Amino acid sequence: MKLGVFTPLLSQMSLEDVFAKLKALQIETVELATGNYPGNAHCKLSMLEDASALKAFKRMFADHGVSISALSCHGNPLHPNPVQAKQAQEINRQTILLAAELEVPVVVDFSGCPGDSPDAKAPNWVTCPWPPEYLEVLAWQWDEVVTPYWVKRAELAAQHGIKIAIEMHPGFVVYSPETMLRLRAIAGPSIGCNYDPSHMFWQGIDPIAAVRILGDAIFHVHAKDTQLYSANLPRTGVLDTKPYTDERNRGWIFRTCGYGHGAEWWKEFVSTLRMYGYDSVLSIEHEDSLLSPEEGLTKAAQFLNEIVIKEKPATAWWV
């Protein structure tokens, strides 16, 4: 297993400087954003139309001995605003094509969330089955919007040998192992997940138990932690809409790895991932509002470098 970094936290730096910084942290793998919510500071989709730029980009990574674990374009391709949906969909399409050119196996995205009808102006995330109109909205979303889009997008990815890793995130139709596996059953095996344990913690889902449920549907993994505040949770519940920077009053916040859960938990998490067939990259994502990107990345790298299982076990004499 390798330690990697999702590079938007280093968006103010050139790729050359990113490589130098990561080398000092014993990191040789990156996840690059191509647009939508994370931006595209280090990976331009325009390379698809510029063979020389694409060749130079590949050469830069080869010269520095750095690999790319995934291209990420987290957006809302199902947004009820057709302009926003079209933009997110086009960035996803081009990201799949660029991943194929770069021989990067995984594209990360959100599932997206439609509105409540063809006339909606904003997404509508359904979180309960009653009153009954909510289930009617949910059925319409999956039947009329989610399924048609993701079936076709999965076909495109499969044609180019790419896997799409959907990050389970509240606010979108895929936010839990159950909804993830529902989409996979509909769209096929080229659809799986980008597994971020921080999003499981605050929903009350045991992230290690969820690995056992998801199994080979895990295509990529983010390394990010969550800290729960028992003093606030009885008041806020887990669906806390206060800004992430209102740390004193929130029921939970995102944390750098090790600041929400200790080494014992992370060792079991990494071991369970390997047990269920995932032996690729832990991609550090920094969203800790109490630590700067510089400090958060450094502390996460130091913490996880002592935890990741970097070598495959030798065959034992009794096997």
Automatic annotation (TrEMBL):
Residues 19-306 form the Xylose isomerase-like TIM barrel domain. InterPro entries: IolE/XylAMocC-like, Xyl_isomerase-like_sf, Xyl_isomerase-like_TIM-brl. It comes from the Bacteria. PANTHER family: HYDROXYPYRUVATE ISOMERASE, XYLOSE ISOMERASE-LIKE TIM BARREL DOMAIN-CONTAINING PROTEIN. The keyword Thylakoid does not apply. Keywords: Isomerase. Coiled coil: none annotated. This is Sugar phosphate isomerase/epimerase. SUPFAM superfamilies: Xylose isomerase-like. GO terms for molecular function: isomerase activity.
